[in-house]
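Budget justification aside, the reviewers requested a transparent look at the raw inputs and outputs of the sequence design task funded under Objective 1. We therefore reproduce one unedited record. The lines immediately below are the structure tokens for a 695-residue chain.
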């Protein structure tokens, strides 16, 4: 063959492939042009082993990014509540930043991201001594993290996933001993105060960078020395249920120190690995909330010092100094050297900061805490700190103790952090709906039929199903013809049975020239088990639904989310499925179930994930003219490539005609290893993505 003929033939083939990628108005045009493609078979292409169509893929690989995990929890404690997370303790985007600490010194701090507590999989309470769920987790997770709540006390465990199984049996003797010790101490304290006719129920605990721990009576300013700290600190926070005060050391490796308020003694829990000025304990989840001199909030497990999650803070004018404090109603406040802010978590899981105080305060707040009267106390920076009360609505303030007050009380020392211990009576928490789950543990406290939730992929995360829509012809593998982000929330009753399924979804890509629909088949659910389906977006008159909202003429329950993806791109939607009788999570099956694309308004033309079955209305037409790449109808080419892929992550699809293995640098290694290598290839880790190749 002449060189000129070879070049001409190659250019013709490239033109045809580009024309048939994702811009056809009908599949008839595709069939005609793939016939032309067959006529080019004698063209001698240069072999490129990195091209996606030339990858050697293991025969049994289905391009799955998740694994099935069954977790069994054995616990006979009435009312114990569990929250379970996917866990791998990975920190990323580690950066060292220059800061000014509470002593006014130049310093450096580590800043990083972690998202473990964003990976909530489910909540529940053992019924008849056992709680069992089968869940989906990303394959790169090898552990689960369990948070157990019993009354106002929290414990946690990190458990290995062993061949898709996790079993946990609760046994706790130390917790019972501590509870008895705390109860006795509180009783003695209450007796002393009653006999002295002392109305004071609050104690202000203070720490500083010199390693001093002391308390202050908020009524008269009297100061009492307590056990010296193992290391100076800018932080303090109190777990009221267990009477522990926590503090993070100011020097590397920044140990998490725990003060036993009953026995006036210190111990080291572990190393946090980062320092900073802001810390508080959240009684609602048993976690420490921490912030360095930066615009981030971290959660820390007080039992092991592990950093669990990260939130970004927007609109924080000054990032240095200050403190965190939870108000009695759960609102989170932050002070910095710039003043007082209220933090509100938005729909994107980001804290939006609203300044409350003026920006011209005559003092630099280093710490703050709420007392039992919901008054906010702050301490100022300096060799002899002031104690100040500030109004959280108006930002108004008043000096109470210290050199700038009129009280005559001068501490003569720095208060780098401040926290409050309040003696409180045990209050019976109501169970408004009478389902046996108290309101604070019930996701639906006023609905007796609902109590808990199970999430796929997680409470705050998104998964993505992405398709090539030219099946059975080979596409360009940019997987952007139709991409759908999803989050499934199974609503459970007090017995952990499913009563409702909420499907939150959004079409994130419309790279096709075809009008496509999208549905889900619940393979273990008969249509009669569904009471109603609401929220489906069906406008094109080729989908027929029964009175309960499921698709007609299906042997198993099929829910059509939409029939024209072009009309709803980037629009958030929710479809709710109510069951006629509660079912087990095992019968419900694993989301996203059996998802499929309906191509070009042709109801019979379904595209499924590899080796998944068509619905009753799907048609396998193996007689299509042209270069049919799926004669056996398993939705994989002979080389193993799929037309659809499910990714348990918010997947950023490639740009038009950019194959996925060019946009993602480790896709090839993942695919050719059968999913063993680079199991998190789709994440935004350094070096993983070519951002210019993503939409």
């Amino acid at each position: 063959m002449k060189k000129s003929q070879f070049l001409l033939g190659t250019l013709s083939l490239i033109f045809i492939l580009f024309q048939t990628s994702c811009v056809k108005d009908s599949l008839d045009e595709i069939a005609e042009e793939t016939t032309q493609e067959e006529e080019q078979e004698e063209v001698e292409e240069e072999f490129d082993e990195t091209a996606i169509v030339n990858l050697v893929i293991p025969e049994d690989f289905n391009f799955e990014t998740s694994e099935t995990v069954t977790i069994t929890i054995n616990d006979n404690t009435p009312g114990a509540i569990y929250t379970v997370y996917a866990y791998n303790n990975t920190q990323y985007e580690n950066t060292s930043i220059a800061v000014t600490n509470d002593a006014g010194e130049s310093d450096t701090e580590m800043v990083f991201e972690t998202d473990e507590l964003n990976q909530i999989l489910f909540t529940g309470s053992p019924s008849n001594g056992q709680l069992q769920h089968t869940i989906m987790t990303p394959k790169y997770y090898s552990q689960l993290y369990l948070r157990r709540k019993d009354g106002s006390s929290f414990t946690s465990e990190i458990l290995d996933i062993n061949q898709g199984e996790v079993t946990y049996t609760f046994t706790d003797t130390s917790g019972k001993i501590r509870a008895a010790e705390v109860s006795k101490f509180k009783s003695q304290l209450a007796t002393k105060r009653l006999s002295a006719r002392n109305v004071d129920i609050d104690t202000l605990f203070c720490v500083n960078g010199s390693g001093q721990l002391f308390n202050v009576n908020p009524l008269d300013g009297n100061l009492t020395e307590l056990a010296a700290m193992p290391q100076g600190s800018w932080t303090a926070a109190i777990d009221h249920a267990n009477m522990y005060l926590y503090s993070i050391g100011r020097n590397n490796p920044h140990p998490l120190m725990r003060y036993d308020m009953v026995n006036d003694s210190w111990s080291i829990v572990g190393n946090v690995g980062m320092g900073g000025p802001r810390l508080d304990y959240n009684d609602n989840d048993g976690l420490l909330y921490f912030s360095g001199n930066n615009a981030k909030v971290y959660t820390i497990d007080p039992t092991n010092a592990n950093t669990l999650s990260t939130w970004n803070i927007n609109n924080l004018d000054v990032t240095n100094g200050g403190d965190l404090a939870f108000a009695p109603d759960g609102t989170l406040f932050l002070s910095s050297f710039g003043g007082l802010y209220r933090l509100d978590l938005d729909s994107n899981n980001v804290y939006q900061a609203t300044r409350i105080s003026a920006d011209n305060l005559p003092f630099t707040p280093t710490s703050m805490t709420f007392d039992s009267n919901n008054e906010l106390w702050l301490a100022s920076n300096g060799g002899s700190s002031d104690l100040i009360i500030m109004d959280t609505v108006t930002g108004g303030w008043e000096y109470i103790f210290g050199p700038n007050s009129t009280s005559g009380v001068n501490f003569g020392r720095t208060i780098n952090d401040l926290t409050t211990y309040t003696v409180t009576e045990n209050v019976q928490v109501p169970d408004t709906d009478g389902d046996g789950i108290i309101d604070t543990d019930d996701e639906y406290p006023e609905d007796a039929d609902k109590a808990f939730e199970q999430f796929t992929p997680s409470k705050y995360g998104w998964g993505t199903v992405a398709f090539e829509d030219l099946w059975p012809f080979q596409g360009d593998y940019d997987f952007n013809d139709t991409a759908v982000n999803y989050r499934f929330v199974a609503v459970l009753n007090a017995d952990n049975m499913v009563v409702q399924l909420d499907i939150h979804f959004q079409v994130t890509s419309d790279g096709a020239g075809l009008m496509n629909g999208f549905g889900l088949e619940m393979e273990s659910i008969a249509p009669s088990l569904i009471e109603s389906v609401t929220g489906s977006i069906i406008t094109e008159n080729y989908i027929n639904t029964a009175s309960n909202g499921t698709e007609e003429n299906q042997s198993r329950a099929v829910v059509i989310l939409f029939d024209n993806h072009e009309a709803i791109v980037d629009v958030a939607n929710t479809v709710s499925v109510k069951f006629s009788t509660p079912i087990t999570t095992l019968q419900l099956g694993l989301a996203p179930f059996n998802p499929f694309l309906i191509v070009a308004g042709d109801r019979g033309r379904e595209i499924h994930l590899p080796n998944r079955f068509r619905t009753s209305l799907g048609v396998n037409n193996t007689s299509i003219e042209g270069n049919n790449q799926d004669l056996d109808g398993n939705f994989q080419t002979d080389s193993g490539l799929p037309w659809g892929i499910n990714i348990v992550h918010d997947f950023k699809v490639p740009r038009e005609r950019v194959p996925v293995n060019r946009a993602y640098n480790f896709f090839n290694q993942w695919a050719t290893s059968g999913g063993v290598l680079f199991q998190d290839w789709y994440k935004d880790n350094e070096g993983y993505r070519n951002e210019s190749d993503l939409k």
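Residues 1-25, 33-47 have pLDDT under 50 and may be disordered. Residues 478 and 656 are 6 Å apart (CA to CA). Computational costs for records of this kind are itemized in the attached budget.
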